[in-house]
Design goal:
Blueprint (H helix, E strand, L loop, with lengths): L1 H10 L10 E8 L4 E6 L8 H18 L9 E4 L2 E7 L3 E8 L3 H18 L17 H10 L1
Antiparallel strand pairs: 1-2, 1-5, 3-4, 4-5
Length: 147
């Protein structure tokens, strides 16, 4: 029954993370502004803008706390889920994945994020917050979400 439900959801286009294991993908500016959120659930009780800002705030907190140490916060773990942070020149992707090889997730998300930043290189440095400027953004990330 679960497999049938997953196939129906996939056919309807509402489930993309079943094979890749990525259940959430946030594309965020380095300032913490949400550009795009992908989810394999239909939860509407989360304020995605606040959540994306908090993901950036946690990274900044760790950076400030450990300022004498070199490096970045690359992942957070919660139970069987891991939040993988992939940084571009102007953006950060936060991919929530379950039971996946970290290198596989980071490589796939990094490739998609680079594609996104290359495609919108003229917009990202001075972006004014209008997400309609990123028409076609889903094309950049669909291969990660459906892989």
């Amino acid at each position: 029954m679960k497999r049938t439900a997953a196939r129906i959801a996939e056919a309807l286009g509402i489930a993309f993370g079943t094979s890749s294991g990525i259940s959430e993908l946030f594309i965020i500016t380095k300032a913490g502004i949400l550009i795009r959120h992908y989810s394999d659930t239909l939860r509407t009780d989360l304020d995605r803008d606040i959540l994306s800002g908090m993901l950036v705030a946690v990274q900044e907190f760790v950076k400030q706390t450990l300022s004498s140490k070199a490096g970045n916060l690359d992942e957070l773990r919660y139970g069987t889920y891991t939040v993988h942070f992939v940084r571009g020149l102007h953006t950060i992707a936060a991919a929530v994945a379950k039971d996946l090889d970290a290198e596989h997730v980071k490589y796939a998300v990094s490739d998609a994020l680079q594609d996104f930043e290359d495609r919108y290189a003229g917009i990202l440095p001075t972006w004014n917050g209008d997400v309609s400027e990123f028409a076609g953004i889903d094309e950049c990330f669909e291969k990660v979400l459906k892989a």
